């Protein structure tokens, strides 16, 4: 079975051709009535399926000419169209000789069923000759054609309006995108695979010192590095090979940049270009360097301190301990970090120390310094003086504790107290009066002074 398709829209011809060939039909496709008549001169067809509105010759005129031709008039003719303005279209198509009038879109099975019915009944029905009243036929034809042309004009006007609206929306979207693109602090540009600049934002343009429209088409390495080829270890070359984001830290004009290159891929995962981002990290690098130096200075100071220093977390775990803390407690620094406050404090002191830690980390005022007791690694109880303060250690609240061994001081004070008591008793029991003079000023007169 040979079928002649007549439709000016390539997509419609293609879909119908695929459908019919899938059912075993041999198909020839043309784009208007004039082309169809040329095909009909040299080949025999078992069915014609035609649209209505087409350039050169429309479907109505094609149907009329086929039915007036003695060699063609018995070929089944189906009008298959989307330009339907009313039932008069179908009536007129059937009046001038069409066998069926089918509206687009149509379910494939429904269309195939109509085609099969038309082909089966083709040999059993008499094809009437056109009415003798040519003027009347042309009048009706003209009316139908004008109506369809008006409908098409309205559709085109609507399409133009929709296209203009779509263009307006696209333009607005492009402008918003450009504003967003230019508002980015990072230096961003779009590159072809060979490094040719396609587009860049204002930050990149300002950094280079040239208007973006004069840089389009130039190589990125020439613009940024003033070189004639890609730099060593170029992230674009690496990304072209790996197919993923590549990065590089580099210095340009006394500034440090983190460069991120992201490949742009099509639906087949083929790289079609790159998004090249340069992020100025100069201040960040300086801040990191200053912080590192500050930390090093801090560690130097506390490591050289005469007092023990321990930094404790909210649960009492030790986060840091200096060497002096190790000497006071008898534990190594590593051991201090493992045992925590509860492993170091005297059992009787733990409740008080825990309460003070909790209050200090919550922001409450805690009297400082204060005395407490710890148990050294050798089991000896040591008297210490504690000064505590709330700090932040790696972004978490912590307690810095300064430990001072006051065991010797306590012994000295006790010895002095005992000595004072001893001489006070001797003075009190003396039979002679005792006068204590300092810098020729009498400031104490002991009792039992002889009168």
Shape: elongated
CATH class of the largest domain: Alpha Beta
The amount of helix comes to 40-55%
Spans of at least 5 consecutive residues with low confidence:
441-451
Distance, first to last CA: 156 Å
As for the CATH topology of the largest domain, it is: Rossmann fold
Biggest sheet character: 5 strands, parallel
| Architecture (CATH level 2) name of the largest domain | 3-Layer(aba) Sandwich
CATH superfamily of the largest domain: Response regulator
Specify the number of helices: 14
Strands, count? 17
Query: What percent strand?
Result: 15-25%
Overall pLDDT level? 86
Whole-number total of structural domains? 4
Strand order in the sheet with the most strands: 2-1-3-4-5
Radius of gyration: 50 Å
Structural class comes to alpha+beta
Question: Could you explain how this protein is built, in words?
Answer:
This protein is α+β, with helices and mostly antiparallel strands and 451 residues long. The chain folds into four domains: 2-153, Response regulator (Rossmann fold, 3-Layer(aba) Sandwich); 184-280, Beta-Lactamase (2-Layer Sandwich); 306-405, PAS domain (Beta-Lactamase), CATH 3.30.450.20; 417-445, no CATH class. Helix content is 45%, strand content 24%. It is built from 14 helices and 17 strands. It has helices at 10-22, 33-42, 59-68, 87-95, 108-122, 134-183, 202-208, 220-225, 235-242, 282-303, 323-329, 333-344, 350-361, 407-429; strands spanning 2-6, 26-30, 47-50, 77-81, 100-103, 187-191, 197-200, 246-252, 255-265, 271-280, 308-312, 318-321, 370-375, 381-393, 396-405, 435-438, 441-445. The strands form four sheets. The chain has a five-stranded parallel sheet, with helices on both faces. Strand 4 (77-81), helix 4 and strand 5 (100-103) form a beta-alpha-beta unit. Helix 2 (33-42) packs parallel to helix 3 (59-68).
């Amino acid at each position: 079975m040979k079928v002649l398709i007549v439709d000016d829209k390539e997509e419609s011809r293609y879909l119908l051709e695929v459908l019919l060939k899938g059912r075993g039909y041999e198909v020839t496709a043309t784009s208007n009535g004039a082309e169809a008549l040329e095909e009909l001169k040299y080949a025999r067809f078992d069915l014609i399926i035609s649209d209505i509105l087409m350039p050169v010759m429309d479907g109505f005129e094609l149907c009329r000419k086929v039915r007036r031709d003695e060699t063609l008039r018995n070929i089944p003719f189906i009008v298959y169209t989307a330009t339907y303005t009313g039932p008069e279209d179908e009536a007129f198509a059937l009046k001038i000789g069409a066998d069926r009038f089918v509206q687009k879109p149509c379910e494939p099975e429904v269309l195939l069923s109509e085609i099969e019915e038309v082909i089966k009944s083709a040999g059993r029905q008499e094809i009437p000759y056109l009415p003798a009243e040519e003027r009347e036929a042309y009048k009706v034809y003209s009316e139908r054609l004008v109506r369809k042309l008006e409908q098409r004009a309205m559709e085109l006007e609507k399409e133009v309006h929709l296209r203009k609206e779509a263009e307006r929306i696209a333009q607005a979207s492009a402008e918003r995108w450009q504003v967003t693109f230019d508002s980015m602090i990072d230096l961003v540009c779009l590159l072809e695979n060979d490094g040719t600049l396609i587009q860049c934002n204002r930050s990149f343009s300002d950094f280079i010192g040239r208007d973006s429209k004069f840089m389009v088409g130039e190589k990125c390495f020439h613009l940024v590095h003033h070189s004639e080829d890609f730099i060593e270890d170029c992230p674009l070359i690496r990304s072209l090979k790996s197919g993923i984001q590549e990065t590089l830290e580099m210095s340009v004009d006394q500034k440090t940049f983190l460069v991120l290159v992201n490949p742009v891929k099509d639906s087949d995962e083929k790289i079609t270009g790159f998004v090249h981002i340069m992020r100025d990290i100069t201040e960040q690098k300086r801040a990191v360097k200053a912080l590192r130096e500050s930390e090093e200075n801090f560690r130097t100071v506390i490591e050289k301190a005469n007092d023990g220093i321990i930094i404790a977390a909210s649960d009492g775990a030790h986060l840091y301990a200096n060497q002096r803390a190790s000497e006071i407690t008898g534990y190594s620094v590593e051991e201090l970090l493992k045992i925590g406050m509860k492993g170091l404090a005297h059992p009787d002191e733990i409740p008080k120390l825990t309460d003070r830690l909790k209050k200090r980390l919550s922001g409450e005022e805690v009297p400082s310094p204060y005395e407490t007791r710890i148990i050294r690694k050798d089991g000896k109880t040591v008297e210490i003086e504690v000064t505590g303060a709330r700090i932040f250690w790696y972004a978490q609240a912590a307690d810095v504790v300064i430990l001072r061994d006051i065991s010797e001081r306590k012994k000295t004070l006790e010895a002095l107290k005992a000595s004072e008591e001893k001489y006070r008793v001797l003075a009190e029991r003396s039979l002679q009066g005792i006068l204590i003079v300092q810098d020729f000023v009498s400031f104490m007169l002991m009792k039992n002074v002889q009168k």
